[in-house]
Amino acid sequence: xxTSLLPLLDPEARHVxxxxxxxxxxxxxxxxxxxxxxAYKQGFPALQGEREPVGSLTERTITGPGGPxxxxxxxxxxxxxxxxxxxxxxxxxxxxxxNLDSHDEICRWFANMAACVVVSPDYRLAPExxxxxxxxxxxxxxxxxxxxxGDLGIDARRIAVAGDSAGxxxxxxxxxxxxxxxxxxxxxxxxxxxxxxxxxADSYRRFADRYGLTSxxxxxxxxxxxxxxxxxxxxxxxxxxxASLAGAAPAFVAIAGHDILADEGEAYAKRLADDGVxxxxxxxxxxxxxxVSMGRHGPAARQAVGxxxxxxxxxxxxFGNAQAD
Length: 325
Hints:
By secondary structure, the chain is of the alpha/beta class. The protein has helices at residues 11-23, 33-43, 104-113, 133-147, 149-152, 166-177, 203-206, 215-225, 262-274, 300-315; strands at 56-64, 67-75, 84-90, 117-121, 154-164, 188-191, 251-258, 279-288. The chain is 34% helix and 19% strand.
């Protein structure tokens, strides 16, 4: 850990790290996945702001590859009941923790700020369900949106995919898998995505500890997710290792400056651009991993979602043309 970097943090990031140190909770890797889930469930309400009202919120269960799959569906205020733009949001949590509630705040912001319908799946978690179970569930959710667009009141031609951290990983993989679809995603909105499970980037050294997500915790997450070491080189685990990213959806990539995943996020944005994919890269130099889920403690979280929405609008010239009910 480079202590000289601490003064470069935004005040809200320093405050969150101070709260974390005061709590003195054991790291996730010191316990079991179930203990980590309980700790995360107890902790995330202190980071998120108040739940913003949306036009409507429902839950629906579909048949997934591994059994029933619950989807939470948000319709923003004033959003038309037909042919609305839509977003599939995939929550973060290292493929091990996180649920529909842990990222509810972000989904509400997207629904209202983008005047769209947001669908968030409660995908299967590791280690009970290892790779590629989460990907399979997310693929099923996207297919449900594409095939059932009329029933959902959305436009199948205007579906974007978004996610943070491990959810960003799943979003990148999904956009690569969907390149041949009749209606592939029109945008991928990525917040500090995990793109290389080898965990060899220099940012793993620069921010190894004391910046929230540690290199030890990230290794624990990964090792619960994969079946064996050979999975690390599978592009569906490490999309940065894909032979080509050409044809993927245009991307918005948000980077936290003090984050072990910073370098691989930067590298993925560069690979996309090199392969001809339109990319908007935005950096929050003074922020830490997970800052988009820390809306209670400052404006950066909502600003990042707003930047993603603005980029999405730029990728889709007819965005927002759906009429309000």
